[in-house]
Amino acid sequence: MPRRLAACCIAAVALAGVVPGAAHAQDGPSQAGGPLVVVAAPDADAWVRLLRAGGGAVRPGTLDEVLARPAGVVTAAGLDADQRARVRRWVVGGHRLVTPDPNLLTALGVGRGPATDIASVRMDGVSGDALWPAPRMVQPLLGRVRAVATARDAVVAGVADVGKGQVLALAVDPFGDGLEGHELLPALGRVADSFARAPDGPQRTGAEVYLDPGSLHNGVSAKPAELARRLAGARIVHVAGWNADNGDPRFDYDYRALIDALHARGILAYAWVEPPFVSLRFWLDHPECREKTATGRDALVDWRRLIALEDPHCFDLAAPVFRKIATAYPFDGVDVAELYFEPDRMRDDYTPFHPSALAQFGGDPNADATAFRAFRTRLVTDLNDKMLRLFNGVANARNLGFTLTVIDNKADPAFGQQIGSDIDALAGVAARNGASLQVEDPFTQWALGPLRYDTLVSHLAGLTPPVPAYVDVNVVDREAGRPTPAMTGAELDLAVSSASQGAGRLALYSAGTIGEGDMAHVPAAMAGTAAIFDTGVRSLWTVTARAPNGKDRRLTVDGVPWPAGPGLAVIPRGEHRLVWSTGTAIGPALLRFTGELGAAAVSTTSLRLSYDSRGAAYAVVDRRPTNRPSVADPAGGFAVRLPGAGTNTVTLAFHSGGRSLLPFIAVGLAVLVAAAGALLLVRRR
Predict the structure, then answer these.
(1) How far, in Å, CA of 25 to CA of 532, rounded?
(2) Residue 188 half-sphere exposure, CB side, CA atoms within 13 Å?
(3) Which residue(s) pair with 203 in the sheet?
(4) Average pLDDT for 482-507
(5) Is residue 246 packed enough to be buried (19+ CB in 10 Å), middle (13-18) or exposed (0-12)?
(6) Among 55, 130, 248, 353, which has the minimal tally of Cβ within 10 Å of its Cβ?
(7) Is the Cβ–Cβ distance between 600 and 565 less than 8 Å?
(8) Neighbours of 548 (CB within 10 A)
(9) Does residue 218 register a pLDDT over 80?
């Protein structure tokens, strides 16, 4: 082949983008700025926590660091006159400030009116009025302020122009008088992050969301593809398992379609069962197995029709129903949830008084109430153990993960006795059966605010025996007939951040009560306790970090080339230095991962992952692997199921560049033919 012709063909293929190692003139470190800075003060950590839970990359720092950035936060701790003058010059010069400091607002020219009594506000990002814990006197903002939160005609928070810059002015201190930051301005974290244009903070794929397709409300569609889209940030979806045993099979839910839709997005699906409830059909077919209350009536309590599983005959009858849901559909695990007895606050609901339970107790519950409560607690523990052993015995058990969901008894021991819950004993049950322990705080604690989970997390850390344990957060209507969920906006963000800080996991009840906007914020709130630096991130668990400019595709982690996607990368736990740069990606990208990543390596044709996972794991990558089955993710990329049950190392192989070479070969051949024709023409001349 003539040299000119060879060079022509090589150039054509190079232009088609398949020459490995091709240099890019634009490659280089990203010049984007670092996290939003909150000026160090006694309340700075609370501000940082709120803003991180809202999804921003935020850290505490000095006033000088704030003034070197495009935006910042000054808390109500106060500045001296010289510092306020410096801040004013900085804002006037074209920067953005968030502050509730009344003296600083005065220096910026934001006026305040006479004090007025305010008991609620209407705020951008929150539907309906937000009721305050108690009325308080507030001096509303005056002047040309674009309102963000109002009480009738009074502006409680708003944006004012100051020279070339702007200030998000707050007429109230969100952390004053011992407040947690969500009570007065319920969307403050997200609104402040957005106003200050804070870079996106890390996210955590660790949420487990409860879903009962038969009881959805809040405008949620039950179509499988739509549910999977809405829950795309979750790690696991716990799907109600009692919708497959109806008297008429036409009314059974299409579990297969939902599970397939979840798997396509790299989400695990667990069968959620609620013993002593089995199913409506079982209740109708076996009246002899209906649990009895203290007054002798059939135990239909709230929505559950309770079955006397303490009766061996009834348990054996129910076992095939439970086995069916775990084996007839491609679930990834099983959640045995809330197997307890009803408390004696209402005698008409108090359980268990089935003849089998009374025979096992061997006495008169009314004559020895203390002994009966102790018996109930032992029975709850034994039945939970029996349920997990049942599922561990199904044919596909080695491919399933297991969760045991129980109600905490440490924050309220009296209520724990009433329902028969002992989480130390239940931790032993979970440990013996290879299950995680999911702990729900009792409703008696729900009025304590979202940061109550700080205490529950500390309780779980001290469980004996040690077991993977995490919090189950109830997002339910605060009052009957109330149109909005109990937690939304900043309150929900703080609850999620607080509850997930120990294990990096939490459960949310439920998909039907959490608004779509709130659900989308859950992954960011779960990473709210991760520390963010100008040079990287530190976390107790795997997080997805964001490029400062949101689009870089090249990354080194501690100097090692990394499989980054467009503006995002899955980062292992620990402290890591991240260096983002422009240019073409090194190779395939890891877009999403449900396990705990240990290490990663990338080349032009492979991606190697080391990780831990108690059950199966899902990876979403930006191109289709050649050595493992995958399914296209509607959000982009391909979902790949990976083995779990411990520490694993997996290598995914790909075509060069992740694309077929045929189009590029065709281009090269076309150029070759054209060049050959040109040479023949020259020779003829």
Answers:
(1) 30
(2) 31
(3) 544
(4) 86
(5) middle
(6) 248
(7) no
(8) 20
(9) no
DSSP letter (8 states) at residue 494: H
Query: Cα(340)–Cα(324) distance, rounded to whole angstroms?
Result: 23
Assign 605 to helix, strand or coil: coil
3-state SS assignment for residue 226:
helix
Helix axes 423-432, 369-392, angle to 10 degrees: 20
SS3 124: coil
Residue 678 has pLDDT above 50, yes or no: no
Cβ atoms of residues 351 and 306 within 8 Å:
yes
The pLDDT tens digits for 324-377 are 999 999 999 999 999 999 999 999 999 999 999 999 999 999 999 999 999 999
Residue 245's pLDDT band (cuts 50, 70, 90): confident
Sequence-distant (6+) residues with CB within 8 A of 444 are: 411, 412, 415
Phi and psi torsions of 266, nearest 5°: 75, 35
Residue 208 phi/psi, 5-degree rounding, is -120, 120
CA-nearest of 363, 362, 349, 357 to 296 is 349
Return the structure tokens found at 164: 């070339």
DSSP per-residue letters across 275-312 = TTB--HHHHHH-GGGB-B-TTSSB-EETTEEBB-TTSH
Instruction: Please give the pLDDT value at position 219.
Output: 64
d(CA 11, CA 667): 11
What is the rounded CA–CA span in Å between residue 150 and residue 146?
Answer: 10
CA-wise closest residue to 553 among 608, 599, 590? 590
- Nearest to 202, CA basis, from 517, 543, 652, 494: 543
**More confidently predicted of 194 and 215:** 194
The percent of residues above 70 in pLDDT, for the chain, comes to: 89
Q: Which residue has the higher pLDDT, 443 or 654?
A: 654
Res 252: pLDDT: 81
Token duo for residue 247: 């008297």
The residues that bridge with 569 in the sheet, in sequence order, are 545
| Residue 622 CA from chain centroid, whole number | 22
Q: How are the residues of the chain apportioned to helix, strand and coil, as percentages rounded to the nearest 5?
A: 35, 25, 40
Contact 268/332 with Cβ under 8 angstroms?
Answer: yes
Side-chain-side CA neighbours of 449 within 13 Å: the count stands at: 14
Q: What is the pLDDT of residue 341?
A: 98
Q: Which residue has the tokens 């953005």?
A: 96
pLDDT in tens, 536-582: 999 999 999 999 888 899 999 999 999 999 999 999 999 999 999 99
525 by DSSP, 3-state: which? helix
Q: Write down the pTM of the prediction.
A: 0.89
